[in-house]
Each structure stands twice: as structure tokens, then as C-alpha cells.
Design a protein that fits this description.
With 347 residues, the chain is mainly alpha-helical. The protein has one domain. One of its GO terms (cellular component) is plasma membrane. Belongs to the UPF0718 family. InterPro entries: DUF318, UPF0718.
Length: 347
């Protein structure tokens, strides 16, 4: 008789009492990643060489203008997107979440502004900020501080501010306005979440994205691939939408909307929610919307990194739908009001 044939009184083998092996880290389907990458490469290739290929077919000035704007926005923004993805993946893989728990003040009200300010020196796109903030909560950081970091990191990090300066040359006030507004919004929402006293019932504590024991380089590689595939696709869609908006929508209609400050701010805020452009690239799209005031374009750059369709989906999946349905509308309202205030003050 072999050991496998021996059973205890419960009908189990001795080996069944051993701890099960930890599950492997979740991976996206290979076919989906390959298809997404191929589509992205095709779109960028058409953006770069499409005019030459179809030059004899499409001669309309509108098509030429669309292609020029699409290529300009995509090519200008892509280096910043790649840099942001690399830095975000490095942050996720090599900086332990326990570091933030030790660095933050123990008092929750004081931890919120410190967590917000840390976004200035800790780069990361909005795709990465959700799992990073989830890791902070798992390490004991108060949810209000983790939420403040979630909002500030993709909005005021060095890559985003540098890309904004490049997109708006000779206009440092735009960079200052974006940093001040985004920092203020992150702190206000962190404190609001702390003051409601109901966050515990609305928030589902997140699970670890990577299995224990996953190598740091494996985490870096998977995070980089995941963020680039998602953010790169949204960048291409956003560049196409911005070009289409400038070419298809009648100039008189845009001028009418742009002439109303409140309406233009709301419109570009909603556009930012729908386009879901990566924060490292949204300044170039905003700069191309020249019909609108700087205040309206500021709202586009403030709203986009903290509330858009992909972030709402990510937050609902990570923190639960009860969190997302309350947090997204509150974030949008605070961001729009703060943009109006800072735009009136600085712009």
C-alpha cells in the first residue's frame, strides 16, 4: 500500500493538509494583448504615413488638416507617455508600499496633504495610480490619504508638468495653474472622504494585484506592458477625437460654445471624461483646442487625470461600485469648480 492510499478519518490523504501553492499572478489574455498592440501599431503607422499613401485619393483640405493635427498630437505626446509608463512601472515594482505608510503622518487629516504633495515627486499615470493606492490601503495607509495620492500622482508629477510646459511654450502660468488646481482638488476630496465618516461602508478593500513572491522585474514588465497598451490606445483615440472636433464641428458653433465660460468649461470637462487620455499626453490635446479659453483647457487637463471612463471602470473593479458611483461625480464637480476659481485667479 502506498502513502497515497492511506486516508485519515475525514477521508483525506496526508498530503491534502499541506498549504496550497499561491495562485500565479493574473495575466491578460495573450491574444488580446497581441491584437491590441497590432491595432495600436497600425493606427500610429497610418498616422505617420497615411498622408503619403492616400495623398492622391484624399485631397480635401479638411482631411489634410485632420491628418496634420492627428500626427502632431500623437508624435508630440508619445515620448512623454512612454516615459511616464516606465516611471510608473518602476514605482510599482521597486518602491515598497510600506515606504509610504512610514513616511505619512499618523493623523489622517495631516496625512492627506502630505500624500497629495508626494505626487509631485512620485510619477505615475492614472492607470497605475489605482493599483498603487490599493497597495497603500493594504499596507495600512488611511483611505483618505490613499485617495489623495490616487488623484495627485497622475496630475502633478514631473512628467506631466514637463509635458504641459512643452505643450504650452512661453506660458508658465498654465503649468502653475494645473499644479495648484490638481493639488487642491486632491486634498479637498481626501478631506471630504475623511469627513463623511461613511467611507468604510462605501469602500471595498482591494486585493493584491500580483501574487506574493512575484519577482520585481516580472512586476515591472507586466505593469509597463499593461499601462502602455491601455494608455497608448486611449492616446490615439484622443488625438483622433481632438482632430475631428477641430475639423468636423462648425467653427461658428465652437466659437459660440467657447464664448460662454461656464458652458465651455463643462463641455471640455465632459470631453476629458469621455476621451480618457493619459495624463502625460492630455496637455497636447488641450493645446490643440485653440478655440477655447485657457480656463476651459485647464478644466480639461484637471478633470482628465482624476475622472474619466477608464478610471471609473478601474475604480469600480478595485474599490467596488458603491465607491465609484459616489466618488466620480464628486470628483468632477470639485474639479470643475476649482478650475473655474484658479482660472479666474491665474489665467
Amino acid at each position: 500500500m502506498t502513502p497515497a492510499d492511506v486516508t485519515d478519518s475525514a477521508g483525506t490523504t496526508p498530503d491534502s493538509t499541506l498549504e496550497p501553492a499561491p495562485p500565479p499572478p493574473e495575466k491578460e489574455p495573450a491574444g488580446s494583448s497581441i491584437a491590441f498592440t497590432a491595432t495600436l501599431i497600425l493606427l500610429v503607422g497610418l498616422a505617420l504615413f497615411g498622408r503619403r499613401i492616400f495623398n492622391g485619393v484624399f485631397t480635401d483640405d479638411g482631411i489634410r488638416t485632420w491628418a496634420t493635427m492627428f500626427v502632431g498630437v500623437t508624435v508630440q505626446a508619445m515620448p512623454f507617455l512612454v516615459l511616464g509608463v516606465l516611471l510608473s512601472a518602476a514605482l510599482t515594482a521597486f518602491v515598497p508600499a510600506s515606504f509610504f505608510a512610514k513616511a505619512l503622518p499618523k493623523h489622517p487629516a495631516l496625512a492627506v496633504p502630505v500624500a497629495s504633495a508626494s505626487g509631485v515627486v512620485l510619477p505615475g499615470c492614472e492607470c497605475a495610480s489605482v493599483p498603487v493606492s490599493a497597495a497603500l490601503m493594504n499596507r495600512g495607509v488611511t483611505p483618505a490619504a490613499a485617495i489623495a495620492f490616487l488623484l495627485s500622482a497622475p496630475a502633478i508629477n514631473p512628467v506631466v508638468l514637463a509635458s504641459t510646459a512643452v505643450a504650452f511654450p512661453g506660458q508658465p502660468k498654465v503649468v502653475v495653474a494645473r499644479a495648484v488646481t490638481s493639488l487642491g482638488v486632491s486634498m479637498i476630496l481626501g478631506w471630504l472622504w475623511l469627513l463623511t465618516g461613511k467611507g468604510g461602508s462605501w469602500l471595498k478593500m482591494p486585493q493584491n494585484r500580483h501574487a506574493d513572491g512575484t519577482g520585481k522585474w516580472d512586476v515591472f514588465r507586466s505593469s509597463m506592458l499593461h499601462d502602455f497598451l491601455h494608455a497608448g490606445g486611449f492616446l490615439v483615440v484622443g488625438a483622433a477625437a481632438a482632430a475631428t472636433l477641430n475639423v468636423v464641428v462648425p467653427r461658428s458653433w465652437l466659437d459660440h460654445v467657447a464664448g460662454n465660460l461656464l458652458l465651455s468649461v463643462l463641455l471640455l470637462g465632459l470631453l476629458a471624461v469621455l476621451l480618457a487620455i493619459c495624463s502625460e499626453a492630455d496637455a497636447f490635446v488641450a493645446a490643440s483646442l485653440t478655440q477655447f479659453s485657457l480656463t476651459a483647457r485647464l478644466a480639461f487637463m484637471v478633470v482628465g487625470p482624476i475622472v474619466d471612463v477608464k478610471l471609473i471602470a478601474l475604480q469600480a473593479g478595485t474599490f467596488g461600485p458603491r465607491f465609484a458611483v459616489r466618488f466620480a461625480p464628486a470628483t468632477f464637480v470639485v474639479a470643475v469648480l476649482a478650475s473655474l476659481l484658479v482660472g479666474w485667479w491665474l489665467l
